[in-house]
Amino acid sequence: MIRTHLDRSPFDAAKRGRLPALGTVAVATAALMIVGASTADAATPVGLGTAASYAVLAGAGVTNTGPSVISGDLGTSPTAAVTGFPPGLVNNGTIHAANAVALQAQSDLTTAYDQASAEPISANVAADITGSTLAPGVYKASSALALNGTVTLDGGSDPDAVFVFQAPSTLITGSGSRVALINVNPCNVFWQVGSSATIGTSTTFVGTVLALTSISVQNGATVSGRVLARNGAVTLDDNVITANDCSPRTTTTPVGDGGVVLPPIVIPIPSIPGLPSIPGVPPVITIPGLPGLPGTPPTSSVPTAPAVPPTSDTPGTPGTPNTPGTPGTPNTPGTPNTPGTPNTPGTPNTPGTPNTPGTPGVPTGPDAPGRYSPGSQITQVPGGGVDTGDGSTVRSADHRQPVSIGLAAAAIIGSALVLRRRKS
To answer: Which of 37, 219, 356, 364 has the highest count of CB atoms within 10 angstroms of its CB?
Structure first.
């Protein structure tokens, strides 16, 4: 450890009991007035080109879970996949999926990544920067870079101070980690990551992440800056990412009953001609901040700008749409009427029995013998009599049998006469 005249500072006197505790606070407050720029101020802002308008930019798609709120553009190229919007929202920006605008932003991101990785190094940092207070400059980790608590970035009196962190491997923040600022513009903080970055659960992160591969922003984490992935995907989970707030700010942490934590004191070490710098030792001496007395308000020399700009209320999760009612059962078609039984044809009328021909009348009998000549016709007269041919009438009832005999005899006589004539 480098020891300077600060080893005999009023802080040591206070520790030895030579100054009252209140004097310690006063000395610490006065010491804030001597914070100056260090030789690490050589860092220059990284030029983002058209990628500066993006809060989220990916090479292989963007996936969101939950009601994330993105302030700024969201894009991906060459992969066009963007899922989870909604429920995620993009405010003050546009979604660009594998179009010419996103392609140009990716090209500008590559240029910015190369610039950040080539920045001259101001100092090396440990693998875990938790508890560090750093002045403006370029800081490089040997491989992976971790944050498992709070790191403080102090811009001193220069609101345009720049911070660049180079992580050749990964960047991983633990749950609840925090990047605190003292007079620092969030848009002047850059994290160049040689592979992938993970912003842990509920982390309060500041700055622009330039990752070669992918970026995962875990549940509840907030980013005041940008997450820009060159080749991989960006994964979000109920996050707030704000890219367009570039005003310098300072964060303070309340403790006790109304007390505050005074910012750390950063005093530059003047360079001595002919004395080489010691590798790994930053060109500043940092004295951790001292807690104020309970109830003591911050002094006028401590900036009191809010740590995080007010953000709009995160919109609630949209309600589940009403489930459409089950369609009613269609009416069952009625049973068609059964056709009536056709009328049975009536039984045809049985033809009537033909009238039986009347029995031919029977002659009432032959004329009485000797009364008429053979061959004469017998004529029946009314009353049942027979005309005898001589003007008299014989009743058949009285002469039925004689008439018959007469007829027979006449026939015989007639036949004999015929035979006789043939022989003669």
So the answer is: 364
